[in-house]
Amino acid sequence: MDYDPGILPDQLPIYYKRLFPYGPYFKWISYGLVPKSYIAHREFSFTLKDDIYVRYQSFSDQQEFEKELQKSCPYKIDIGAVFTHKPRDHKTVKAAAFQALEKELVFDIDMTDYDDVRGCCSGADICGKCWPLMCIAVRILDRALRDDFGFDHLLWVYSGRRGIHCWVCDEGARKLSQDARSAVAEYLTLIKGGENQTKKVILPQSYLHPSVQRAIDVIADVFKSYAIDGQDFLGTEEKREKVLSLIPDEVVKSEIKDFISQQNQDKLNSFNVWQTITEIVATR
Question: Which pTM does this prediction carry?
């Protein structure tokens, strides 16, 4: 069944009155109401019909929150930071005094970032063949956040369209400075660039950072089922050229091309080409 945004004006009032999980939602974002002013200083932003964006919404308690949601029926709710003052009163406070105190550390895993390693879909489209990429990303990031940084309270949610969000809710994570957040993101960043960047990353053969090695181990467990069986990532000449362009060693690349050119092209498949690549690389 295709999604029809035209039904939202009729369905959202029912959703916010009967189905929205006010109790669990409010319990999560208030963290026990310590201090009691915590929730009142939390900013919410609403996207209303016709893409009207409303910022600096804040509520004193759950009842006030429920009443406003059932009244405005937002198409989207964004959870913002906790500020020094109530966001709805921000115009009465000097700009220098209105400062963010804390916010969950949030990671966005977007399927569009993986377009150059999937052939079944592109953009916001997702299917059963490429969804394993999300599963791999979750396993790698979850382990790194728990083992490398010591975070415990991780909330994984489907973004509703193109991927998955991870909300790190530990108090220490919520109070990280912007520089510290950037440092965490940088630590977790190995590859930059999109499909137009052929040089991704070169991993040293002599030593790998333990976190990188553990990520490789996760990928190795599912590489055959995903890349070879599911995506057939070396099944056509175009796909093979794309993969070969990532190999930095020109000698290795030449040997692989020689092997491919000598084979019956009708019998080439992802399995035997990948087997040749691994055999050649292993001799180096």
Answer: 0.86
Known catalytic residue: 43? yes
Residue 29 has a pLDDT of 92
Separation between Cα atoms, residue 30 and residue 70, nearest integer Å: 20
Write down the catalytic residue from 68, 89, 102, 110. Answer: 110
Cis peptide before 35 (omega within 30 of 0): yes
Block means of pLDDT (10 residues each) for the chain, 284 residues, are 79 96 92 84 96 96 96 96 96 94 94 85 87 94 97 92 91 96 92 55 75 92 92 89 84 87 81 88 79
Q: To 10 degrees, the CA torsion angle through 248, 250, 253, 257? A: 150
Residue 38 buriedness (CB in 10 A; 0-12 / 13-18 / 19+): middle
**Which is it for strands 154-158 and 105-110: parallel, antiparallel or unpaired?**
unpaired
Clarify whether 110 is annotated catalytic. yes
Catalytic-labelled residue, pool 78, 108, 195, 229:
108
Q: Give the Cα separation of 113 and 135 in Å (integer).
A: 14
